Amino acid sequence: VQLVESGGGLVQPGGSLRLSCAASGFTFSNYYMTWYRQTPGKEREFVSTISRFGRTTNYANSVKGRFTISRDNAKNTVYLQMNSLKPEDTAVYYCNGGNYWGQGTQVTVSS
User: Fold this and answer.
1) Environment class of residue 53 by beta-carbon count within 10 Å: exposed (0-12), middle (13-18) or buried (19+)?
2) 34, 97 in Cβ contact below 8 A?
3) What is the spatial distance between Cα 26 and Cα 85, in angstroms, rounded to a whole number?
4) Up-side HSE of residue 74: CA atoms within 13 Å toward CB?
5) Mean pLDDT across the chain, nearest whole number?
6) What are phi and psi of 30, to 5 degrees?
7) CB 43 within 8 A of CB 33
8) Residue 21 pairs with which residues in a beta bridge?
9) Contact 49, 39 (CB under 8 A)
10) 47 C-beta neighbours (distance < 10 Å), count
11) Taking Cα atoms as reference points, which of 62, 63, 60, 82 lies closest to residue 12?
12) Is beta strand 33-38 parallel, antiparallel or unpaired with respect to 2-6?
C-alpha cells in the first residue's frame, strides 16, 4: 500500500497550489479520502474529506471557500486545489485513506 503526495512548494500569500495524492495497493474507490495538515508542535488537523465517488465533501472552517477536494478513481488519485493561500496554511499536508498515510508534502506560504 502506498500513498504518495506531491505538489507542495513555496508560494506567496494569495497564490495557489494543487496537491495530488496517488494511491496504490488497495481498492481506492472503496474509501473516503481525507487531507490533513500539521505544523511543528501541533497536532495533525483535518482539512477536507471526500466520499467514495466524490458526491460528498467536507472542509474545515479555516479552508472553506478557498480549498477544493476532488478525486479521480480511474487514476487512483485525490487532489486538493488550494487558492487564496495564507501564511497560516503553511504546514505539511498528508493524505489518508483506508487507515493508510502518505509521507506528506510541505506547503509554505510566505512573501
Assistant:
1) exposed
2) yes
3) 32
4) 0
5) 97
6) -85, -10
7) no
8) 5, 78
9) no
10) 24
11) 82
12) unpaired
Please name which of 101, 62, 103 lies closest in space to residue 85, comparing C-alpha atoms: 62
Alpha-carbon span 97 to 106, nearest angstrom:
19
Are 93 and 105 in contact, with CB atoms under 8 Å apart? yes
Tens digit of pLDDT for each residue in 50-95?
999 999 999 999 999 999 999 999 999 999 999 999 999 999 999 9
Q: Locate cell 474545515: which residue?
A: 60
Phi, then psi, of 29 in degrees rounded to 5: -70, -5
Which amino acid belongs to residue 4? Answer: V
CB proximity list for 15: less than 8 A, separation 6 or greater: 85, 109
